[in-house]
Structure formats: C-alpha cells, structure tokens
Amino acid sequence: xxxxxxxxxxxxxxxxxxxxxxxxxxxxxxxxxxxxxxxxxxxxxxxxxxxxxxxxxxxxxxxxxxxxxxxxxxxxxxxxxxxxxxxxxxxxxxxxxxxxxxxxxxxxxxxxxxxxxxxxxxxxxxxxxxxxxxxxxxxxxxxxxxxxxxxxxxxxxxxxxxxxxxxxxxxxxxxxxxxxxxxxxxxxxxxxxxxxxxxxxxxxxxxxxxxxxxxxxxxxxxxxxxxxxxxxxxxxxxxxxxxxxxxxxxxxxxxxxxxxxxxxxxxxxxxxxxxxxxxxxxxxxxxxxxxxxxxxxxxxxxxxxxxxxxxxxxxxxxxx
Length: 320
Hints:
single chain, about 325 residues, mainly alpha, Rossmann fold, 4-stranded parallel sheet, about 5% strand
C-alpha cells in the first residue's frame, strides 16, 4: 500500500512539474491561478525618471515592458545569440556577446518597435584545453533554448520574434527554429493570432562577406576569426572598456606569439612535421588583426547593423 501511495505522489509531482514548466496559453496572474486576459497595471507603477530610450528587457521593470508592448507598439522581440569563444590573445572571450548586445540594441532603436531580449552568452561550439576561452552548447540544446525563449516572448505578448546571431554555430539552430515556429503559427487554428518568427541572417555571413570586400579594396588582410573585423568592432563598441588588449595587437595573427607563418611548403602535410621542432602555441586568430582600429570597427558595426535593419524592415513589409 505504501508503495502505491508513494508512486501516486511521484506521479502527481511529475504532472505538477510539467504544468509548472508549460503553463496554459495566455499566462497566469502572478504565476498562479487560471489564465486571465492582461489588464493595465496602475500608472503610478511607471516611473517618470525611467530612461525614455530604454529597449533592453533586462533593464526594464515588468510594467515598463507591458507599457512598451501594449501602449508603445513595441511588439517585436529581438533574440540575439552571442557566445564565449577564444578570440586571440588580444580580445576578451565574451566578444560575440558584447558585440552582439551593442548591435542588437542599436537595431532595436532604429526599428523603433522592438525590445531586446537578454543576449544568449553561449552558442553551438566546443571547449578546448589549449585556447581556454570557449564554452559551447551543442546544436540540439541551442535550438531547444532558442525555441523556448521565442515561445516565452510570445507568451509575454510579443507578436513577432526576430532571431539574430554573432557566431556561425547558431546558424542552423536558428534557421530550424524559425522555420518550425513560423510553420506552427501559420496553421489555421493559430494564424489569426498573427504571430511570426523570423531568422534575420544578413547580420552574419552576408555582412562579413560584404565587409571583406571593403577590406580587400583597401589592401587589408581578410580574416575569418579575431582578425581586423572582429578586433576593430570590439575596439569601437568597447571603447574605454578594455575589451581589446591593444598592447597585444602585434600578436593578433594566425600563429603566435610573435610568429608570422611562412607560406606552406608545396606537398608538405602533417606527416612532414619535424617531431623535434619546438611547439608553437596557436594564437586563436584565423587571419591577421594587427592593423585593427576603432575607425574600421565603426564601419564594421554600421555594416552589420544597417544590413540587419534593412532585411528586417523588408521582411516586415511582407507580413502586413
């Protein structure tokens, strides 16, 4: 009998846990009770001293978020995936997150109808014990987190969720989640809610390719990781914050420290390496970032932000 009672108790706990994690659509007042339609909070709960241009969800009170959604028309939620990843000896590991936050806040301000959700500090990636700056998720976990946050934003009252990313590992998870949720909300039983989820991909590869052409036209080296575009953007967005150890720019090159690789010997492969040669610690840079500057960073920042804003605005015209 005791076993039956215990089993029943466990079952009740499990069911309660499921409902706690997945409350009925429409939300619950104070996190408890049945789902009810939202009502305006008292006006006195909105501080006259609150910043007027605030767009960051994490820096707003809940009445401020409510007011933004229901009375300011800010029904677009921007979800940005950053990341922590080694970025050469010169850049702090959180570069993807730091740059991402700076860009997505500017994107929200230019759109005028958006709120920035907390930037995800992890992306699909893998840690290593040599370049000890990376902490990553796998694609399945990132997709699950992205989907959950998108659905939470929708439950909060946002009618449009825009996904953006700063690291290549987020491309597939975001593509898949946007497709899945957009299809879900186009179903006949949900279509009247006019909820949309979109992956704005231009800020990543397209913007990088575009800026590579700018650098090449000036005779500057093109890099794929922690080179001129990344390092310069961090110098610009993180001015005065020491995101870039500028005294180490001389080491911001593919191999380091202080070692500029010679062209590879034709036909030489890994098997041709001299086992007695001294080991050279890879810098974590893919390319050459030694000529990075705040001025170039401003251009890189504007390139990505303007391409993202243009893509989002063009897409929004298609869902009116």
